[in-house]
Design brief:
Helices cover 60% and strands 9% of the residues. With 561 residues, the chain is an alpha+beta fold.
């Protein structure tokens, strides 16, 4: 480990101890690694705060990389307990904007030309400044209004350096932290590594924007900004500037609120069940209201993707939750997850039944979607079922969407809105007019069974093809017959060997001139060896058949292998 890494660990250790995590550092051997123990007083605020809040305060004080770690973890309810997720969701970037000269330098390094050759003008005052990048309004040479997202200089190198330190700390913590969840500390850092490098690559974000633009071409109520490819790169992203008002600041009449809420719901369902591509962070700051109650989505750094199979599973899960069918919910979650061991499906189902009864009254204004989603994921973690990250991200996005809908139109009925989409998606399999009550539950269970059986049969066929599948048939009479046949074969083999030695002895008796006291030497040896073999065979057969069954059979089996 490099000296600067050790210095960074020492800084982290001091700040962590100030927030009340000194005991963990002691148990993990951090001070022993550094060669000295730091004397740090726990701050009064940390003494009064919960562990989750102290963790959030710690990440905030450690700087941009750790703030971004907290923000990414706040979208992953499958990684951390619910109280940590709620605290981390409040993390905000508080960083000073970098100078305009650095923006010009970054543009020249990334796009190969001076800013004056790329833009007619760039607003010196940034629209936003965050730990990864900052955003400026600008105008292209053709006169188009755009926004330019410029990556912070040196941020990639800083994150890579901090990741080395984080991995070292994670390995130390794994030795002392009790694993109550599914992921280890190093597993969490691996997830962060993948997510942060995706966010650092603006080419990835530009690809997301183009996909959203293509998916929403025929939805007149939704506006997606256009990407300027010639003015974009891995560290610079130029997009169309959209004039609008943040949804949290828009002044809308009751009729307008109902219409906007309908647009949000329709867009959400279409993203999930038609496009297979959904916005992973639809908070009020990323959603604008335009003229005519149209909507505009911003910031596509975090998106989720659903395969066709995942979409169908999501339909089944949504309907099962809406109908309070705990059996189907349990089986669907068990199927989509990756259990660490055989789960107690009965206990899982009973806990889900209690959860659904607690959280599902009739109208959206009464449903606490945040708690429902959180507790469903907590139950999966409790039963050690690893839910795919797409579903965890969807949970976070659903909670944000639910919050906006609650503020816009709290009396919206969930079943009234969800059923038409569900019927449309199931139209190719079932008669939509019959999807009601008990028949719906039956169809859900049939759908679950129909999806499980091909998977299980496919696994059996793959095992047969690869030679991993075997069937053992045991019968007492067959075992006895097998032992008797094997014993008889051994006796016959040994007898034949003895007969051969006797014949050889007589031949030697007749032809060999070597004699001892007038008797042929080889003949005597042959007869003695034959007698010894006969004696051993009959002794084993009469008194040691159990020994023969176990040892000789094992020897023969080993030789065959």
């Amino acid at each position: 480990m490099l000296l600067q890494d050790l210095n960074r660990i020492r800084q982290i250790g001091v700040i962590a101890a100030r927030h009340g995590f000194g005991e963990w550092l002691e148990r993990a051997g951090v001070w022993r690694l550094l060669g000295r123990r730091e004397k740090v007083e726990v701050s009064p605020e940390a003494q009064r705060a919960s562990t989750a809040r102290r963790f959030r305060m710690l990440l905030n004080d450690l700087g941009p990389t750790f703030v971004k770690l907290g923000q990414i973890l706040s979208t992953r309810a499958d990684l951390l307990p619910a109280e940590y997720i709620e605290e981390l969701a409040t993390l905000q970037d508080h960083v000073e904007p970098f100078p305009l000269e650095d923006v010009y330098t970054r543009l020249r390094e990334s796009l190969g030309r001076d800013s004056s050759e790329l833009f007619k003008q760039i607003d010196p005052q940034p629209l936003a400044a965050a730990s990864i990048a900052q955003v400026h309004r600008a105008m292209t040479l053709e006169g188009d209004e755009v926004v330019v997202k410029v990556q912070r200089p040196g941020i990639s190198e800083q994150i890579d350096s901090d990741l080395v330190v984080l991995r070292s700390l994670a390995r130390l913590l794994e030795a002392v932290v009790e694993e109550t969840g599914i992921y280890s500390p190093t597993g969490i850092i691996d997830e962060f590594d993948r997510a942060i490098h995706e966010e650092l690559d603006f080419v990835h974000e530009a690809s997301n924007i183009r996909a959203f633009l293509d998916n929403n071409r025929n939805r007149p109520y939704m506006k997606i900004p256009r990407v300027y490819d010639t003015l974009s790169s891995r560290t610079v992203l130029t997009m169309e500037f959209i004039r609008g008002v943040k949804i949290s600041q828009a002044e809308l009449s009751p009729e307008d609120r109902r219409e906007v809420a309908g647009h949000i719901l329709d867009a959400s369902f279409r993203q999930l069940f038609e496009d297979g591509l959904f916005h992973g962070d639809p908070h009020p700051g990323n959603l604008l209201v335009l003229e005519g109650n149209r909507l505009a989505l911003l910031d596509f750094g975090v998106v989720g993707r659903l395969s066709r199979a995942m979409q169908e599973t999501l339909v089944m899960l949504s309907l099962a939750v809406a109908l309070k069918d705990s059996d189907s919910v349990a089986r669907i979650l068990y199927r989509v997850g990756v259990p660490d061991s055989r789960a107690n499906l009965v206990g899982f189902r009973n806990d889900i039944e209690a959860l659904l009864g607690k959280h599902l009254p009739a109208t959206l204004g009464q449903v606490d979607a945040r708690s429902l989603m959180r507790e469903l994921l907590d139950l999966a973690v409790k039963y050690r079922i690893r839910i795919p990250k797409e579903y965890a991200l969807l949970s976070r996005a659903s909670v944000s969407t639910e919050g906006m809908l609650r503020s816009l139109y709290p009396d919206l009925n969930i079943l009234e809105v969800a059923m038409p989409y569900a019927k449309e998606l199931l139209a190719d399999r079932y008669d939509p007019s019959q999807l009601q009550g008990g028949l719906m539950r039956t169809l859900l269970r049939f759908q679950s069974l129909a999806q499980d059986l091909p998977t299980q049969l496919s696994q059996i066929l793959l095992d047969l093809e690869s030679g991993k599948f075997s069937v053992t048939v045991r019968a007492e009479q067959f075992d006895k017959l097998n032992d008797n046949l094997r014993s008889a074969a051994i006796v016959m083999f040994m007898g034949l060997c003895a007969c051969g030695l006797i014949v050889g002895a007589f031949i030697s008796f007749a032809q060999t001139p070597w004699q001892f006291h007038g008797l042929p030497v080889l003949g005597l040896l042959g007869i003695a060896l034959s007698a010894a073999i006969f004696g051993a065979v009959f002794t084993w057969y009469l008194f040691g058949r159990r020994f023969g069954k176990v040892s000789v059979s094992r020897w023969l089996t080993t030789k065959r292998r």
